[in-house]
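dumping this here so i dont lose it
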């Protein structure tokens, strides 16, 4: 077992990735980014999840190490997206939703690698997924492989970018969480993680808190229903 740094936003996917890392690596540190996101409530949820996840399985608390917060407000300043500005979520002329923040994952991985370099961490774990996603090009497997090569060349290291959700749909992500941490992890994800693009936490759904209408909420809800064996709405 080696050491890992997890890109941890406070959402469903990154919390599942954190559980994956705690189950598979000897020491696990986390990193989160404040880039001026509309749903920055996720940053508050990070702290709550980190305070609770170690108690889910024996050994997890001892493996959970330092949390790193990185200020990337400039990314929000140069982005004209529905994730960083108060505009309606819509499809762009390029076929991508306007929730896509160009360069976001590329910057996240670069800063994560810089911290991993300093902290002596070899594995970098992210929740990028090419199965249930919005077409974001920086979530594709080829992008992650290219970034791994660039980071290793540019830092003269042997980093491994782990993406345990890459080929899972949302129902399978819920199932993986159950396999990793049982009902306790599922309950933590439902109650504490944040996915809603609009930052809504006032309304409790069966699958957690959110507006229920934005693309992130709809994807999470459909995955929950499929995971539970319930009819999935068209």
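and the seq i came up w/
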């Amino acid at each position: 077992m080696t050491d890992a740094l997890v890109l941890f936003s406070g959402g469903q996917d990154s919390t599942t990735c954190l559980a994956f890392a705690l189950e598979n690596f000897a020491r696990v540190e986390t990193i989160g980014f404040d880039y001026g996101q509309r749903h920055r409530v996720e940053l508050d949820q990070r702290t709550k999840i980190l305070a609770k996840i170690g108690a889910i399985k024996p050994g997890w608390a001892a493996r959970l190490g330092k949390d790193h917060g990185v200020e990337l407000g400039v990314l929000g300043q140069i982005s004209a997206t529905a994730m960083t500005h108060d505009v309606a979520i819509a499809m762009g002329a390029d076929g991508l939703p306007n929730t896509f923040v160009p360069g976001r994952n590329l910057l996240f991985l670069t800063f994560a690698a810089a911290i991993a370099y300093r902290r002596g961490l070899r594995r970098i774990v992210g929740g990028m997924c090419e199965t249930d996603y919005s077409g974001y090009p920086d979530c594709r497997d080829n992008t992650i492989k290219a970034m791994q090569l660039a980071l290793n060349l540019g830092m003269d290291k042997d980093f491994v970018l782990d993406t345990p959700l890459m080929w899972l749909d949302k129902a399978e992500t819920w199932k993986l969480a159950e396999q990793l941490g049982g009902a306790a992890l599922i309950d933590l994800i439902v109650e504490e993680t944040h996915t809603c693009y609009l930052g809504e936490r006032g309304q409790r759904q069966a699958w957690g808190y959110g507006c229920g209408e934005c693309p992130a909420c709809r994807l999470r809800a459909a995955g929950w229903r499929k995971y539970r064996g319930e009819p999935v709405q068209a």
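The mean pLDDT is 93.
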